[in-house]
Amino acid sequence: MDKEQGQQRTYSKAGSFYGRHNLPVSLSREGFSISIDQVGDTWLYQRECDGDRVEKKLLTSINMVLINPVEPLNRPKEITSYLLVEFERPLMIEPGVKRRIFVTFPIEIGVFMSSKRGFEIIDILTMQKQKFTLYGNPRTGVICKYWKSSIHATEPQVDPIRQGVMRLNVSNVSDHWVEVTRAVFNAFGMKLFYSTDLVAMKATMKILGKYMAETDFSNSPLRKDMTNSLELYTSRKLIVTAPKFIMEQGI
Prior knowledge:
Layout: E1 10-11, E2 19-22, E3 25-29, E4 32-39, E5 42-49, E6 52-58, E7 64-70, E8 82-93, E9 98-106, E10 108-115, E11 118-125, E12 132-135, E13 142-149, E14 163-172, E15 178-186, E16 193-194, E17 199-209, E18 212-218, E19 227-228, H1 232-235, E20 245-247
């Protein structure tokens, strides 16, 4: 029992980081820690991540916090809503072929406080270094969050605090052999799911020609035991009308 709080603190176990936690709470993994403790009539939120320390006072009467993965486009600040995944080796696809592959993506973690109106984001953290790139030419291209991934035939083993797994269904509906080196996604259309050992999402890539493709996401979990993440655009009540992305400047 914490003498200062008079309440039992909740400590995280290996697989219990994501999800809802009653306050007070202390969560730690290699490289970072999160704690929310009662100080008088307020709550003190403290977070350390790769040497970056954040403290916030919380005035709330609801003693519950939600921690789950969010779209990986918020750190260090909201620069873009597009994620570009570059493949370590090019993928050659013949006409008419459909294949399922797996790639990884970076994880960003959202900390949400419960409220009478739902959940409000109070912090976002990541263990990954942030890189950005330009897809297309400087006049008509788009800035993207950049990530490089190997192509896997089966679900790879990853640290769910640092990396997620994307199952990508690739189909070549063109009449040509096509070389694919990357995929660009509208991150606001992401549907993230998590379990104790995995963060995942499912996506599609329809190849329309040698230099054009369409990407989209599926709203279903990779495994049956997974929980749907609270996405940031939902919590911020942003309306997304076109989650698909048309790659018109090369694939």
